[in-house]
Amino acid sequence: MTGLSSIVxxxxxxxxxxGCLASVAFCDEIIVVDNGSTDRTxxxxxxxxxxxxxxxxxxxxGAQKNYALSHATMSWVLSIDADERVTPQLRExxxxxxxxxxxxxxxxxxxxxxxxxxxxxxxxxxDRVTRLFRRDRGRFSDDxxxxxxxxxxxxxxxxxxxxxxxxxxxxxxxxxxxRYSTASAQAMFDRGERSSVLGAIVRGKWAFIRTYLLRLGxxxxxxxxxxxxSIAETTYYKYLKLWLxxxxxxxxxx
Length: 254
Fold this sequence. Notes:
Blueprint: E1 4-10, H1 17-23, E2 29-34, H2 41-47, E3 51-54, H3 61-70, E4 76-79, E5 84-86, H4 88-100, E6 105-114, E7 117-118, E8 127-134, E9 138-140, E10 149-151, E11 155-157, E12 162-167, H5 170-190, H6 197-214, H7 221-253
Helix pairs in contact: 5-7, 6-7
């Protein structure tokens, strides 16, 4: 079947889902796979015309998006997160890309915000992500976090931004810091990686230097500094949690 499917995975995205789905209302079908939301995410998604599928298990981001992909019926797929928005300009570009079908997939520049401001530097822009692809030519990697679309074929480049309200406030940032550092540590541990306290400190410091200096985060002003600190903290806690996982495993052997 020709056309465009949009797929979204959710959990307690009441604050984001309506705006997200409104921005992809031009798609021929919208599929939302929800993982046990306890707020109004499901009701809002259904009210927006999405086909909602309840998935009680959580296999990780990559596997969950592949599950959503398996329910898509159109020839093309647009993957979007609940805190992302397709602008009218990007919509027109996506529709042309699907109609012309010159490539098997397209990557999109993503502009992310931090505490209410879209960042220009700090390694955050342009953050190109492959999100539009032929259903029979793309799938998601099996990574539990930081999954990506693996494409069999050619990839073109769109010009208009996908907007990403990553951290609207400090509270959201702190919550995501904890969740993502935990998930990343577990994924690394499962791959056989290990860390130490010193390693966590060194990697955290390097993350700050890379973000604030090498990636010109200082040009983003005070928020650029705050972002560099948050990235350093995420990196530090990720490797510290990896060290603690190793300690627990060693203790279990005794």
